[in-house]
Backbone:
């Protein structure tokens, strides 16, 4: 696949089980520098767990996860934090700190990691808020924001330390079409303007297809398909085709495994 | 979650062990937390100042009840004159620290648990982790320290208000001589007795705050999980307070 | 971070109140506590007693019922088997005759012990390092009762030459009260 120089994240043959339930069995993935990589998959396929592996919150049972060339499993706390400072993450619901207002939320990582003067810090925060179009909302509390606004604030917070890697966890869930379009364009703009490598985890296939450079499709604990969004859409493989088109017919069954329907209707109730 | 044993004894032991280990982690972060006085002041406000009204009300009534009961009891032996010292010793050594701690667990402890639990449930703690900010240092340590600092202050306020409650009943209602009441009190109370109360309240403050932040930090990240953790905070704190109280009393006497 | 006046005032008020309460408890309440306003200065005097009962460091020293000082130390002299009590007198009371008489008394029937001083007639006064020679030990209730019963028993058996009860602590005390 990609050579080491352009790979920001390399996941190799990862096996992982949570509470005895296997989630990954031989997962491979490469995220290349400067590109938007979409990771798609049905609910419960382990997309969020993959992000936990990449951010070093959990370690793989087998195989390796390397980010910026560091094997995440071998890092101690200090080194892990050093790697994390180079990444930003946007959580599903924004995960804004509820006791701080919008301005302070964006300023939070800066205050924690640097000793910038108050005026420099303010300038930095205003810039990032302007980038997401929420400079006017600086003094609102997180509870006063709509879902889309909260996510944009979280985006401003994620980019305030100028990360090299941005991770979006389900950025489109629960957004109205306008907000979704705004977030979508923001992801693209951040990637192009700042040269950030982006990972977008989602199952909104159509939206992702418009911005993603590479796509992965997850199912059954492994990557079942990869390539450009167009390649995936044109795939004739049943599992990929079903997911991309949202069909009911395919390897992923509508019915949860159950005993014979007619037999259960006619038989004696248990 | 991966442990073999699931019996109540094993899980209780694990909980106690993880709480103790958590204490060490939190203590390691206390010094950096002290370097942020504003953060700390905020937590002292949250845990201390916001509990002030309930503490003062309770203190007043506990003092008044002590006055009534003490008077009734001492009257039977014809020694009402020592009511002042009975009220003072009862409040300083025992009721002040214990009742303040129980109220603290119910008022501030639950608030701490649900606050941190909700931060866990809404990914705020994870977000900090990803921002390379240790939530133990930023979220847990200031709250723990705030509780440890607030508790002795609350206890002192409780006891003083209680003393005035006791004198209200003894002197105003039962007609004891005010001077005798106070001089008896001063004659009988030793610095040692006051110290006992302060040490107890410090221990209770550390215990209550630790349980509250630990339960919140390890809460299941769901609404039900946070509710459960809050309940556990009250139960565990109350039991631990009374247990510690016995141990500390035995130590001091 | 922006300042929040309500928060700051609330916190300040709480901390102030808390420390005021702590201060009250530690300084005003206990007899042995540091009294606000009263200096620790004063002159030190010692006295020996046969038995001090449950006299404690911090117990008051009174003269005609007025507190003039307090007990600062209690030790045991192994040479002549007596209790040595160190006392600090308030510098305001610097004209106490050096032949004054110190006795250990009880506040009420069951209250704490204190040292009561009865003035002597000397023209020289107690000063730093002085020693009060005339002392009377604490009345130990049990010795009193023992003595009473001993007398009672001996009277009852017709033996008029009752031996004095052996309790050393009360040996100087007449069991008449």
Residues:
């Amino acid at each position: 696949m990609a050579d080491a120089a352009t790979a920001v994240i390399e996941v190799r043959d990862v096996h992982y089980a949570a509470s005895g339930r296997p989630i990954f069995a031989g997962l491979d993935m490469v995220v290349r520098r400067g590109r938007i990589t979409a990771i798609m998959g049905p609910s419960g396929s382990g997309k969020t767990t993959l992000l936990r592996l990449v951010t070093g919150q959990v370690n793989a049972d087998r195989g390796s996860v390397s980010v910026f060339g560091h094997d995440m499993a071998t890092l101690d706390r200090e080194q892990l934090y050093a790697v994390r400072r180079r990444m930003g993450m946007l959580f599903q619901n924004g995960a804004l700190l509820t006791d701080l207002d919008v301005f302070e939320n964006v300023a939070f990582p800066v205050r924690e990691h640097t000793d910038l003067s108050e005026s420099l810090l303010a300038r930095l925060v205003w810039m990032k808020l302007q980038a997401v179009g929420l400079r006017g909302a600086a003094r609102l509390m997180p509870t006063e924001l709509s879902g889309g606004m909260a996510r944009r604030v979280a985006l401003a917070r994620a980019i305030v330390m100028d990360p090299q890697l941005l991770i979006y966890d389900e950025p489109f869930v629960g957004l109205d079409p306008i907000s979704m379009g705004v977030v979508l364009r923001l992801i693209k703009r951040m990637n192009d303007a700042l040269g950030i490598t982006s990972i977008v985890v989602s199952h909104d296939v159509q939206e992702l297809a418009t911005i993603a450079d590479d796509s992965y499709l997850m199912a059954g604990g492994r990557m079942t398909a990869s390539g450009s969004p167009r390649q995936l859409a044109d795939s004739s493989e049943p599992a990929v085709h079903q997911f991309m088109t949202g069909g009911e017919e395919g390897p992923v069954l509508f019915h949860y495994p159950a005993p014979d329907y007619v037999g259960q209707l006619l038989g004696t109730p248990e | 979650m991966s442990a073999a044993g699931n019996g109540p004894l094993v899980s209780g032991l694990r909980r106690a062990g993880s709480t103790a280990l958590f204490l060490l982690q939190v203590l390691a972060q206390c010094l950096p937390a002290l370097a942020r006085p504003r953060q700390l002041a905020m937590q002292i406000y949250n845990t201390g100042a916001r509990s002030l009204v309930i503490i003062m009300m309770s203190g007043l009534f506990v003092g008044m009840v002590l006055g009534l009961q003490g008077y009734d009891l001492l009257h039977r032996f014809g020694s009402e004159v020592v009511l002042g010292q009975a009220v003072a010793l009862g409040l300083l050594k025992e009721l002040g620290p214990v009742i303040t701690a129980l109220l603290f667990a119910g008022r501030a402890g639950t608030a701490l648990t649900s606050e941190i639990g909700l931060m866990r449930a809404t990914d705020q703690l994870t977000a900090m982790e990803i921002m390379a900010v240790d939530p133990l240092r930023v979220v847990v340590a200031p709250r723990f320290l705030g509780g440890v600092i607030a508790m002795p202050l609350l206890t002192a306020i409780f006891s003083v208000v209680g003393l005035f409650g006791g004198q209200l009943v003894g002197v105003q209602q039962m007609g004891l001589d005010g001077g005798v009441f106070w001089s008896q009190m001063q004659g009988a109370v030793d610095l040692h007795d006051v110290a006992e109360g302060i040490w107890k309240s410090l221990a209770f403050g550390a215990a209550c705050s630790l349980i509250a932040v630990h339960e919140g930090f390890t809460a299941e990240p769901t609404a039900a999980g946070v509710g459960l953790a809050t309940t556990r905070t009250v139960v565990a704190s109350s039991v631990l307070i009374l247990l510690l109280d016995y141990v500390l009393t035995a130590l001091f006497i | 971070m922006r300042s929040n006046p309500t928060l700051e005032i609330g916190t300040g008020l709480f901390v102030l109140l808390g420390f005021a309460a702590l201060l009250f408890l530690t300084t005003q309440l206990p007899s042995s506590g540091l009294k606000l306003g009263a200096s620790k200065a004063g002159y030190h005097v010692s006295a020996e007693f046969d038995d001090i009962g449950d006299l404690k460091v911090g117990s008051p020293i009174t003269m005609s019922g007025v507190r003039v000082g307090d007990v600062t130390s209690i030790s045991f002299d192994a040479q002549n088997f007596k209790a040595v009590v160190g006392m600090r007198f308030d510098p305001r009371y610097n004209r106490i005759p050096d032949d004054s008489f110190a006795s250990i008394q009880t506040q009420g029937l069951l209250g704490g012990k204190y040292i009561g001083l009865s003035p002597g007639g000397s023209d020289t006064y107690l000063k730093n390092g002085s020693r009060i020679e005339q002392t009377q030990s604490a009345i130990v209730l049990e010795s009193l009762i023992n003595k009473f019963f001993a007398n009672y028993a001996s009277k009852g058996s017709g033996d008029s030459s009752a031996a004095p009860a052996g309790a050393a602590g009360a040996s100087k005390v007449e069991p008449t009260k």
